[in-house]
Design brief:
single chain, alpha+beta, 3 strands, about 15% strand, disordered N terminus
Length: about 140
């Protein structure tokens, strides 16, 4: 019973911290001036009380989306609400494809200079690695 109470207290502290740092996270609320110009990905877990962000993956520009569609057959938005265990093989396929043909993907570098092959590969490698370390989480793309 004592361990259970401690777990609830820890979860409550995490929730309170996340609400102070990201008060709108998970609420679907965006600043009216904000434009969808990048992926912002977190790994979430449902504690039974509330869904809590466990790991911040970070954000990266949408300008490299053609690389993701070509290497994985889908864009990162398609990972929203996907379990990490389901995403791992898809991300692995994308990493392998990007690594196997860098010249092909470097040709897809955005003309505007926002994003590049190296950054795109690093971003999905980071997402993959965090999913491997947190397999019970689901992916939140916003």
């Amino acid at each position: 019973m004592h361990a259970y109470r401690l777990s609830i207290q820890v979860v409550e502290q995490i929730i309170l911290y996340k609400l102070r740092v990201h008060p709108q996270r998970g609420k679907g609320v965006r600043d009216k001036k904000e434009k969808d110009m990048s992926y912002d990905i977190s790994l979430m877990i449902n504690t039974g009380l509330e869904e809590v962000e466990v790991v911040e993956v970070g954000n990266y520009t949408y300008n490299v989306s053609p690389m993701y569609y070509d290497s994985m057959g889908m864009g990162l938005n398609s990972f929203n609400d996907m379990k990490c265990t389901d995403a791992i093989p898809i991300l692995k396929k994308g990493i392998e494809s990007l690594q196997s043909n860098p010249a092909k993907y470097k040709e897809m570098n955005p003309n505007n200079g926002w994003g590049n092959y190296e950054g795109a590969l690093e971003y999905i490698r980071n997402l993959h690695d965090k999913c491997v370390r947190n397999p019970l989480c689901k992916i939140d793309v916003h």
